[in-house]
């Protein structure tokens, strides 16, 4: 607890003195006699400034004065602190304070300043510095504002009177502690008589009961907030409030009509949609959801109804096929009921409605129908062609009862085993049947109306082929029987079984025995095990592989069919060398051994003879391979107009086997041996002939002239030899790249012209070149000489 309580009273007196009264309680050393009177030299009035001053002159705030100031100008007043000089100014001589700017309390409510009196000459303080506050006095210059507006709100329809909707709040920036500038009251400007607002709290409530959303679902209110407690001169602000009535289930579903009629074709498939109908409900969303039911009618099980969740329609669909000839119309009673019923609105009436629906079935031309749709027949696989198996029947369901023709869909009977009578539907065999190949035939029978061939009905016929005993039994597998040489008498060496493609109703029963040809077999015996198997046993021991390595045992198998069938199957038994455990080690024929008395020398002699014969045969074959084919044809042929083409290409300068380059460069030797055989009239066919160039200077010719001369010589030699074919002495010479030893044989570089080129000399070469002379003589005026020369050379090479 405090030791004393100090009460400070600040009083203003005309003589500018301030009394300070201090009352000290609970302390005995203080008493009322200790009151002191202190005199201060500062004198000023309490300072207040109105905000939003709009005058042109500075606003007078107050006056500072000191007892030291005698009015002789020796005291100067100085003002410092917040807003000094910028907002507040002071007269240095008089101490008057003025505000030079417009003040706003909402920006700053007070200013703290410091005042001091100083000597005007020495600037020495004559009074202590004092602090004072200039308060900005509020005026009503701010209107109320809705900081959260505009507002949106919702309230359920049919709400009772006074239901709260939303609360609005306005804020006034004026001083709430001074006057009524910030005291706000609310009122509704627009929205009556549906809603009201509480003046002090701003709570909006419904002003009418049972407002219906289906009549009007939205209201826009204008709310006003006014300060000065709503008195004249107060400022105001407004905001909008959008109020939406939310839906409740207060409306039952209703059909627009009491009866509906729909038509449907009798051919529509299940589950096709027959009709759609909808009961209207003024509510929305979940309040408008409904279920439909068929509650009565003469179509039990034929139709059903469900709800389309997107459109809330009742969808009537088909559950069973329709038949115009059986029933042509149906009557239904449909009920629509709300799913979500609000108990507080049950007094509004039943939330369901009913309507009558009539469905008319329209007749269509239907295809014939088989009775029954699937028919099962049986036939023996021994049935002869033309045997009647059964009959199918179809009828036209329409009232016209058109005549029907039957046929088989051949895609189901590709091999045409069966026929059907087009008028009666009788099915018969068309080919011999084999149950083992196909035991069941699945046929599709077509029934076509005579009046409308587009109407085709389909029926199924399953024909099962009954088995007869037409297959003899055979071994179940290919048996490989191995017999050890040391087998004991009576030992089982193989157990056999049989299979039969037939399927007798009572199952298979096979009988095994040795064939008649093996009935006196001394090596093996057969035992029928009476369970469709048989065992093969040995009769003696000491089987010798060297004596006989393979035994063939014929086995007779008879089935139990009627009539019984049999077959003879051969069982191969191979004699093997076995170890002590009876596991075969080597089977079959024993390797060849040398006869007794044959010496090693004799054996070597035999091997030598064999090797000699092989060497002779190899030599003969090698000689036959190296033998060349004859150059001349065996028979006489007329080859004058035949052109034989050779596509051989020489190896160029790398080819040293095609020809001898030395021989080509020493042509004088060749010419000496051959020139006496050349006809003298052929010497002038080429510019570089023997008459024009000396043989002694032949080696000095350019390489290309050397090759050309050589080729022409070979042509002349061939010409004078009537027995030589045109390709006898043909050789191909090629030139590759610069610097080739062989050079080029091309005639593209020959310095010839049209005037120099003549082909008359070809006629002098004999009958074999006459055709070339005629050919190139005709072309002489059409093509350039270089082209003809190239073609000529090419032809000569081929010849």
Automatic annotation (TrEMBL):
Q: Where in the cell is it found?
A: Cell junction, Adherens junction; Cell membrane
Task: Report the residue ranges that make up the Cadherin domain in this protein.
Answer: 66-146, 147-255, 256-370, 371-475, 475-586
Predominant subcellular localization, coarse grouping: other
Gene Ontology CC: one annotated term: catenin complex
Organism superkingdom: Eukaryota
| Keyword terms of this UniProt record | Calcium, Cell adhesion, Cell junction, Cell membrane, Glycoprotein, Membrane, Metal-binding, Repeat, Transmembrane, Transmembrane helix
According to the record, the segments passing through the membrane are 602-624
Query: What protein does this entry describe?
Result: Cadherin 7
**Organism lineage:** Eukaryota, Metazoa, Chordata, Craniata, Vertebrata
